[in-house]
Amino acid sequence: MIDFGYGLTPSATLKIENVDNPLFAELHRREPDVSKCIACGSCAASCSAGVFTQMNLRKVILSLQRGREKETLPMLQHCMLCGKCLLVCPRGINTRHLILSIGKVYKLEDK
Amino acid sequence: MRERILAAYDPFVLPFVFGMTFVLGYCLIALVKVLVQLTPADRRKFALSLITPTTIVKNIRDLFCDCLLHVKLWKRNPVLGYMHSSIAFGWFMIILIGHIETVLYIPERLHKLYYPIFFRYFMEEQNETLQGSFFFFLMDFFLLIILSGITIAIIKRFRSKIVGMRRTTKLTLTDRIGLYSLWAIFPLRWIAEGFTAGVAGGSFMTVPINWLLHNFMSKPENITVAWWLYSLALGTFMTVLPFTRYMHIPAEMLLIPMRNAGLPVRHTRKGFALTMLYSCPSCGVCIDACPMGVQKKNVKDATVYLVRNLKRRNNRRTLENAEKCLMCGKCAALCQVQMDACGLRLAYRTTHEQRSNHLPADFGYLAAVEPDVSAAGKTGVTAAAEAGAGSSGTSVGAQKVLYYAGCMSSLTPVISRSVQKVLTSAGVDYELMDKDGSICCGRPLMLAGHQEEARQLIEANRRLIEASGARILLVSCAICYRIFKEKYDLSGITVMHYTEYFNQLLKEGRLHVSNGHQTLVYHDPCDLGRGCGIYDAPREALRTVGQLVPALKERKESICCGGSVGSLTLRYEDREPITRGAIDNLTANNPEQIITACPLCLKTFGRFSPVLVKDFAEVLAEHLTPAQPTQA
Amino acid sequence: MSQNVVVIGGGPAGLEASRSLRDLGYTPILIEKEPVLGGHLARWDRLFPDGVEARSFLDPMVADLDGIKYFTDTEVSSINRLKDTWVVKLSNGLSAQVRAILLTTGFDLFKAEKKEEYGYGIYERVITNADLEDWFKSGAGPQFDNVNVIGFVHCVGSRDEKAGNRQCSKVCCVTAVKQACEIKEKFPGATVYCFYMDLRMFGRRYEDLYLKAQKDYGIRFVRGRVSEVSEDLDGHLFVKAEDTLFGKPMKIKMDMLVLMAGMAPSASTQPLARMVNIQTGEDGFFLPQSIIGKPCTSSREGIFFAGAATGPKTLPETLSEAASAALAIDRFLKTPQKR
Q: Does domain C4-106+266-334 have CATH number 3.50.50.60?
C-alpha cells in the first residue's frame, strides 16, 4: 500500500515549533522589551546600515521569534550600533542593547 | 635635650613597627606589580617623564597641591578642603618635624623607624631652650590643626549636610576600622604626649593636659599605657590601610607622576588603571555629580562603587555599573583625584565584549560606498565666495567645507536645514557628505566596546572625507565632533564643530545677525563641553542673537540630557527623570528658549521641556540679516 | 425657576448634552473658551464613513440653543465646593452655583511639530489631517502645483512612547482612508499612499470604506512606518519607510505628505482635574467611575463627563454619551439630597 503522505518532499511551511525557546527566554531575560515589538518597521526604515545592506532589525526579531536565527547573521553583522532605531521605536525598546544581547545569547559566529 | 630612655626601645613601639613595615612592604609590592603590568612602551614613557624637567616640576607641584593641600577640594567646598588639608598637611609636618628633631638632637637613632614618631617619649628637655620650645610649639601647633580637622571629620560622618554634601559614600567594614583608628590616632597622641609633658617637656597643647591630671599622668605605668594605645592606633591604621580607602594616600603619590606622563587606561585592573583604583578616596563627590542620581536606585552605580566592585572583583555588579553609565564624564571632571571614570568603564566594556560577543561584524560594504557629491554647495555659492571677502588664506569662511550632518541629524531635519541656510548666507563653498545616508562616525560603536569595528568605520569615513578635497570638516553633532577630533587622523583637514565655525564666521564678518533680545539658556553637551573643552564659542555666538542667562550648573558641571548613547542598558522610562532633572537645572533662571548644540540633546529635551528648545544653527538662521555693503 | 447645570466645553458633546438637559427642564450654562461653538467639528469638512457634511450635524445644534445660556471666549477661573454645590467662577466675571457640572472639554490635536523627523513646520509640503480638512472645507491652505504623489502617515503622535502618547487615537485610520479618497477626488491622476501600522476599521461601514479605497480609488496601502522625511531643492519630499510586508526599506519622492495627528488630552484637563479633585489616567484623559459601566460619572458627586474628555471617541459615541450624561445628571438632581 502506498502512503500518500508528503513525507518525502521538504515542507515549505514555517515550523514554528522550531523556535529555540531556552535561547529566546535568555534573550527575553536580558532584554524583556523584545516582546513589545509590533513590527512597525520604524527601525528598518531609519537604519543607517539598511541603506547599504540587508540589515533589518524588524526581520531579525521576527526571525528569532520564528526559530530562524541563522538567517539573522547576514543582517546583524552590518549593524553600526548608531542608535537611530533606538530613537524612533514607538514602543521604547532599547534596540542597541537588544542587538548586543543577541550577539551574546545566540552563537552566530561564521562557521 | 637628652635621651630619657637609654635603651631607645620599649615594647609599645611594636604595633607601630609592625604596621609601618607591613604597609611599606605592601606598597612596594604594589608598585612593582603596577610597573610590571605596564606595557613596555608605557614603561619607557613613564621613565622618560621622570627625568623631563617640566614634568618633574609639574609632579612636585601636583603632589604638593593635591596630596597635601587638597587645593581642588578647597575650590569645591572650603570646609571640606580645610578638613582634608589640615589632616594631610598637618600630619606631614609633624612627621617631617619629628625627623628634623631626630637629625638635630640624636642622629644616631635615625635608623630606628619609630624613633621620630615617639620622639617625645624617648627624649626629654633638661633645660628649656629656645630651639626646644620652638619645636615643641611647632609640634603642638600642627597637632591642633590636625585635631580641628578630625573634629570636622567626625561631624561630617554624622551630619554630612552641615558640610555641604548631599549624599556620602557608604563605608565598608574595613573602611570603618580605618576611619575610627585614624580618628583615634591624634587624640591619643595628644594624651600620650600630655603624659610625658611632665617629664619631657611640651607646649600649649600638651602641658595644660598634664597640669589638669598631674597625679594620674605622672605615674610611669600610666604613661606607658597611653603610649601603647597611641602605638596601637597607629599600628591598626597602617595595617588596615591597604584594604581601605586610605590606600589613596600612597597610591595618589604614584598616580600623579603616571598621569603627568600621559599614560592611558588600557586594562581596567592593570597598570595605570590599578593605581587609579587604589587612588579612589571614596569621597563621594561623584555620587552627587552623577545625573542618574535623580533616582535613588541609581546611587549604587556611581563611580565610587564601580571602583569598589572592581577592587573586589565583583564582576556582576561591575558589569551592571559599567554598561549603565551615560559616559557623560561629570564624575571624572569633579573627581578629586581625576579618576578617568569613562576610560575605566570603556576598558571594561571592551574586554567584556571581546570575551562574550559571538557576533562577528562585517563592514566590508563600507569600501563600496562612493562619495555622493551634492550639487547644492557648488553652484552660485562659489561665485559669492569669490566675489565676497578678499581671500585671506587663514579665513575659515574662505575655505572649502565638507558638512557631515551625522546619523541623528536625519531625525532632526531643522539642524541640517539651518546649517545650510547659514552657510549659504555666509557665502561658504560647501558640500554635503551624507545626503543619501551616512556611515556612522563610529563613536556609538566605540562606546559599546567594539574598538576594532569602530576603526573600520573611521577608515571608511576618512577615505570619503579626504577624497572630497575640503579643508574643513564641519559637524553639527557633539558626539561626531569628539570622535573626529580624538580618533580620526585627517591630514590637512581641520575638524570644526558648527558652534566654533559659525562663531568664527561672525567674527570674520562673513555672517550677519540681528539681536532678538530673547532670553536664552545654552546647554553644554557632554561631548562638546567636558569632552572637548568648547564652552565659550557657542556662548559668544549666542550673545549676538539673544540675551544669555546662565543655568544653575553649567560648563564643566552641566548636567547630561539623559539621551546619551553611552548608556547601553538604561531603559527609556529611566531616562525621563534624568532629562527632567537637566531641564530643571536649565530653566532655573526662566529663559524663554533652551539652545542645544547636539541633535540628540535637541530630541531628548524636546520631548519633555515646557520651554521651547531650539538648535544652535536654528536660532542663528532665524536671526540672519543680509550682509551690509562692505566698507571697501 | 429651573435648575442650572454648568457644561464646560462647547463642542458636539457639550452642545448635544445642553440640548438634552434643556429638554429635560434644566437651564444649561454652556462655557466655551474659543470664539465659536462647535469644537473640532466646526473645522471638519465631511465625516466618515459616508461623507456626510459635518455642518449638517453642527448647524442644527448651534441653531437650537434657546433656553441655553452660552458664553464663548470664556474660560473657567475657579471651581470650589460649597456644601453640596459647586461654585463656578468664569473669566468674564460671572459665577454660578450648581449641583452638577458636565465636563465636555474634548481633546487637543497632537502637535505634529513634536515629531521632528517628519518635518512639519519645516517642510512646506508636510501638512496635518486638520490642515487638509481646512483646505477641503474652505479652500484655504497650501496651494501646491503638480500634486502627483501624495502620502498619508498614520499614527502621528499615537501609539508612540517617543511622542509621549501610548494610546491609539481610534479615528485617525478611518479618517486617513476617508481623506485619501477625498484627495483622489481632488487630484484624480495622483498616486496616493497610506503608511499604516494597523488599519483600525472597527465601525459600521468602515471596512466598506476601506474596500472602496482599494478598489475604486486605487489607494496604495503600505504596511510600514515612516521614519524620516527629507526635502530636495524644489521642496519635494523624500519619505523613508519600510514596506514590512515586502520586507525592504523604501524611499519615495512625494509632492505632499499628510500627517494623521492623533488625539491628545486637552490642555484644560489637568487644571480642571485639580479644581474639582478628580483623577486622570496615565494617558492624561479624565478617569470615569468605570470605563465600561459608568463612563459618564466621576468619582466625585456632581461631576459628569461626556465625549472625548474621557478618551478618543467617534462622533456617534460622543453624541450617545452626551444624551446619556444628561440622563445621569437628571437622575442625580432628582435624587433627594442627603441631610
A: yes
